[in-house]
Amino acid sequence: MDKILSASFLKAPKYKEGAAFVFSKEFESDKPIKSATLQISSLGVYVAYLNGQRVGDFILAPGWTVYEKRLQYQTYDVTDLIKDGKNIITAEVGRGWRFHKRPQHATKHIKADEPALIASLCLTYNDGSEAIINTDSTWKSSESKTVYNDMYGGETYDDNFVSEEKSAVAFPHPKEILIPQEGEKVAEKERLKPQRLITTPECDTVIDFGQNLTGYVEFKAKGNKNDELVITHFEVLDKNGNVYTENLRKAKQQVRYICSGEEKLYKPSFTFYGFRFIKLEGFKDVNPDDFTAIAVYSDMKRIGHFESSDPLLNRLYENIIWGQRGNFLDVPTDCPQRDERLGWTGDAQVFIRVASMNYDVSTFFRKWLNDMAAEQGEDGRITHVIPATFDGGGSAAWGDAATICPWQLYLSYGNKEDLEHNFPMMKKWVDYIRKSAAHKSLIQCFKGSRNPYLWNTGKHFGDWLALDIEGDDEDARGATDHDYIATAFFAYSTELLIKAGEVLGKDMSEYKALHENIVKAYREEYVNPDGTIKINTQTACVLALKFGLTPDREATANQLVSLIRKYGHLTTGFVGTPYLLHVLTDIGEVELAYDLLLRKEYPSWLYPVTQGATTMWERWNGQRPDGSFATPGMNSFNHYAYGAVGDWLYSTAAGITMRDGTVAYEDLIFKPQTDKRLTFVKASIETARGTVASEWRRETDKTVYTFTVPAGSKAEAVLEGKTYKLNEGVNTITL
Ligand code: BGC
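^ thats the input. predicted complex w/ beta-D-glucopyranose below
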């Protein structure tokens, strides 16, 4: 039995909202020790210490799960931290994701309970005997010097504060929800030094770390007793070079530090910030060396790399990587800075393909998918955000994360268990759409749209943040008909379910018939007699081609190309953008795909790069060419969704693809698409089989291709229409 189950949940005798609490227990270790193991978790987030030394390096433990049903605990080997004789174990507990005051939306997650700790320390002596120190009412409790903490608000640390110590209170709380650590630990990663110390035109003192990131700042807190030091974290300066915090909405993103007179190295423990810049108040004689920004995210293994001859493209790729770092903090989030930071399903499904090439995200997503299954409604509905912090769900392209994410894990890493495990959730989601699509209101029946295979019910986000509403660059939902998108995703999710079922050897005939019916209904409803799509947007054409819905690929392809030419640029939002370049490549428009990729003017992927972006922007128009910002209501500068283009860099610019029907790079087809504007491209992915790499380099009168094939993989290259068989190891072809 896990020892932690024999311990009790402990809370403070009196709850003071916003404060962090300290729980501690002194104990003796009176015999030579063989090993010591700590199992620990909390309601809220904890940091544990043994004899003043931090236990482990997990930041914001125990992580974020669907707390009603699943609460992770961590197990640490603490043998080296135990002393002979007197010892003390201490743990500080802050509010974390469980109790924070999110200023927007209903706060269904704010629990009626209070921050609490549960822990079990097991000492095993050399003589084979054991001593167990469990949390119980013999532990002491006090208030922390962190007198205020909140995920969105930040932290206040009062170095003068001295708390009374009282007995902690043991209380009953369900223990069957405790599960061992499932995800990656969250850890401190890159450490960045200030690039610039600025005095803004409005006379604010600002440090620029040169990189938008998620984490916090470690700094030397110096000052006289009761001096207050305030740090405000933010992402961008406005066009005049002044501090801009409006896009944080109601998130404060501050640290307040009250000095005792004694200098201390300080960093927050219970929160994180999304920032590139910090504004300093109360600091005297600022020395940039006293500040270090620390990136904090899930400790995934980096496996992918990309580089080309175009520095802007390389910066775009770096921005995608930083977007993943900043938004893979235990759950895949939309953004790390404003009063949101939630596990938005739509964002995760558009980004998972490139995410799985950049890093090994198998462990990270398995945990999140378990939370998704835990949140799934009886009726199969998938909530908009996982863990669900507000009611709302069942939307197209968002809920479809339930089929897209497990399928992508299987494609990238080849474990059938990911499909087996998630198949019930995938099936329930498709059944949910089927029921919702069939259930029409009287008005819909009256309008004649009662076909049960058209998903024209429910509320959807449309092609989120697309640019095709004429004369309005701030509209959120784009011009593509929502029901059209919903029906397209109904077909796509059903297709993925069929594929998953077939891998698992299930009879999928019922769903194949369903798929045929959806495609038939789609064609009747949305395709003109000349083969063009009635919904005349880039995203509508992209989905028709990508999901195999159009009966006339050529007509739809021409429609898409003419829409791009009409605007002279992309107009797609979250739904169309991830597939846009892939679809153009499939229809033989590689040069046009490169035109869009390498375009520098607004709107494009490189436009933000030309504006100095160091992460992906949420909107194409985050900061317009005239320097004005898009609406602060929805304008994050670290939102990974448009970074989905990264998978085209690996799979088309560098040409690393898998043969259809195969997974985990077991059967490779290298099919790089060169472009005259680039002289070289190279990419690699460290797979379970070994390194897969592709490179092309243009020399005066020839192009040299180099492909690396891991042991045990089959591989061929398709170059200029010819197929070449490749061997294990490094292959060079000159054309
Ligand atoms: C989030 C998005 C999300 C969207 C749903 C926003 O507030 O930041 O990324 O997908 O809501 O429409």
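Residues 311 and 317 are 10 Å apart (CA to CA).
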